[in-house]
Amino acid sequence: MRLFRSLLIALLAAGAASTQTLPAGVQKITSVEGITEYAYPNGLRVLLFPDDSKPKVTVNITYLVGSRHEGNGETGMAHLMEHMLFIRSKSDRDIKKELTDHGASWNGSTWYDRTNYFETVTATDENLRWAVGLEAERMVNMRIEKELLDKEMTVVRNEFEMGENQPINVLYQRTLESSYIFHSYGKPAIGSRSDIEHVPIQRLDAFYHKFYQPDNAVLTIAGKFDETKALALVADSFKAVPKPQRVLEQTYTIEPTQDGERQVTLRRIGDNQALLAVYHTPAASHPDTAALEVLAVILGDTPSGRLYKALVESKKAVNVAADEQELHDPGFFLARILLREDQSLDDARETMLKTIASVVSEPPSKEEVDRAKNRILKQIDLELTNSESIGLVMSEFASAGDWRLLFLLRDRIKAVTPADVARVAKAYIKDSNRTLGAFIPSKAPDRAEIPAGPDLAAVLKDYKGGAEMAKGENFSPTPSNIEGRVIRARLPGGARLVMLPKKTRGGEVMATVRLDFADEQSILGRTVAANVTGSLLIRGTKNKTRQQIQDEFDRLKARAGVSGNAISATANLETTEENLAGALRLAAEILREPAFPEREFDQFIQQQIAGIEATRKDPQFLASNELNRHLSPYPRGHFRYVSTPDERLEDLKKVTLDQVRQFHRDFYGASNATIAISGQFDPEQMRKLVAELFDGWKSPSKYVRLPLPYRKVEPASQKIETADKEMALFTAGTTEKISDNDPDYPAMLLANFMLGGSGASHLFKRVRDKEGLSYGVFSNFSAPEIDDGGRFVVTAISAPQNTPKVEASIKDELARVVKDGFSSAEVADAKTSWLQERMVGRTEERSLVATLTQRERFDRTLKWDDELEAKVAALTPDQVSQAFRRHIDPSALTVVRGGDFKKAGVYQ
């Protein structure tokens, strides 16, 4: 009978609730364990938790803004705003006085995901009306003024300084700053001193109007009150606060996976030492959070926790703790150890890490798990018995995503098993996921204080500067104008000299010395020794060490690069007119008299091995290398053979210093050298100097230019798996029978420019700009001088999961261009852009020297460039389209993809 009566009362109560009249526009959303959520037309969410057991009521408003939402220059703004909302409103309400007058227990707090304000007062209708009205006032009607900010800033700064006085607090902040590279959870809620002191009032006011709005707030009323009256009261108090027109953007930063242990050492005055270990863990909403909560108790509880037993009971530390921080975005698991100054930090660190790792090697027992669960569930149950605690705890879970997470977490904790705890420990308690912080007390910390920047107006008030740099002449870089200035000479020994003298700014001048040597047969099997030879040239001569060479180039204000391979060696110089002779003399010494020091040889080999090993799992290198291997079907040992990383390692380990020295003796000489100089210099002086330096240096072996003939290759498709790589590479290519003398060459240059050779190309606009799949996508077309071994390649980087889309888009765009060709408008625009790009290139001395060198080697003048550009300018859209169709067959492309496709679930 009693049971029936209870059920009847419950049913009547439910019926009364279902027929409850809500204020206009207000909707009931959901109810969980006595807490009911309502939505108001202006976006405000309201949680009601009636509890008549105690004559008090708590009003808590949570704004979903914390340090997570602060950008650079904004750190601490949410916390500053917390302080500002306790001063005065625009209607001159003294907030703190009103709180005191109503006998309220009140405060506010700021955390990573939220800021909240609350007051607990005696449960009367008048007090509730006042409290709700106060929060409506504070939402949009507070005075955010410089005068008030200046006063409150010193208070906040003092709070900041109070925290700075606590080394453990500072260590906590420094460790999190290192743990989070990009996400704002690495920024303390209180902010940085400079931002607190200098934040512009306009920026703070904009922050207030952006985030302190009803659609970004959750109002909780908990305690003794009438629900119907409370709903009406909220409607009445907030009716003047409209739903904002702006759309509040959500944060989107995702902290990348930590890929190695990080360490922080803090040295400040203090007595105790401390250790912190921070591990990244999932967001509060993730199911693993429950097991991580249990893990925190198993490790950090006193006196049952493993850390306590291992460190405190053994007298290696004085205090331990562990905590799982549940946040809106992925949070962190933290273990803390406190030591006396006379206890061993190294011993405690080793024991702490071993103990934490023991949860994986020695999974927790059922007894440990049950004890931890009971402890956590007890705390939750006690929170739920107190309406004030419930009113406040709602802030944490509402800002983590939904207030109901409190109950979901509780239920998940009830279901946690020892296997669950072992699983999450194995998943997240990893060395590579750890940031370790250590505080070492110091009686006199030796820190580098960075001074503030000076007043530049005062510093520069009377500054006059030095003498103005000499100006260059107004030189038009057209091929015909360049050719009209070029001076050519053939030295008796066979070397070619090509010079372009002109006045340049500051007397700038560039010079290139290129030595061509050997023939195809003589260098078979000697490619590796040749490459090492070229790399060691600048590391020492018979008269100068590597350091002395560097110092001499510095004295000459010269940039120098020296390299070599099996068929040539090159020295590039950039300097000024007065230093050109000295730089050329030093370059000649490097090329002619290298010492090949054994120490430098050993260092270089080890550096190369390390570099090769670094490429063995690099998708960008592996995919490109594999395509080049396919497009270069030559036998191993040939100059044009493309080695695998393993083959390169094998060859490097075999090469000897004697082989390097012998290669230089066998091939280096200037009989077939080309020396090009462009910039400000005396041509006659340079002609004499070049003859002095190089004319008597004869090449020991005959020189026959290494040909690059067309070789047809069959199309292929390959996939290279590279685990744990966030970027993938798609590349495709084929060989083309074409030289730069071919009638189709000008059209193919322009076609490639429009397809993928510029930022306005088809591939760039589609794959990057429109579809957003790749940061870099491009095509390249090349054709050699004289020979017909041309090549066409398309390449794009992307996330592995997007590579199939990139591939599909590139293939589709290629097919579309082959089918439809190029329009008149784009051809006209491309011609203008291409010609301007070449003109700009010739304004640089480096580019001019390279062009002069290459033209001279093939007995060409810049008339060839003039004619090429005229041919491009005369092209019709049909000519370009037809040439592209003749040479590019999408079905003939060899495709190579490199990336972590297994993890992405593509190309399976």
Give a concise summary.
This protein is 44% helix and 18% strand. It is an alpha+beta fold and 908 residues long.
Describe the fold and architecture:
The protein is an alpha+beta fold and 908 residues long. The protein folds into four domains: 20-237, 2-Layer Sandwich (Cytochrome Bc1 Complex, Chain A, domain 1), CATH 3.30.830; 262-441, Metalloenzyme, LuxS/M16 peptidase-like (Cytochrome Bc1 Complex, Chain A, domain 1); 489-694, 2-Layer Sandwich (Cytochrome Bc1 Complex, Chain A, domain 1), CATH 3.30.830.10; 717-904, Metalloenzyme, LuxS/M16 peptidase-like (Cytochrome Bc1 Complex, Chain A, domain 1, 2-Layer Sandwich). The chain has 34 helices and 23 strands. A seven-stranded mixed β-sheet has the order 1-2-3-7-4-6-5, with helices on both faces. Strand 21 and strand 22 form a beta hairpin. Helix 10 (288-300) packs across helix 15 (405-414). It is elongated, with a radius of gyration of 37 Å. The two termini are 67 Å apart. 40% of the residues are buried. Residues 1-19 have low confidence and may be disordered.
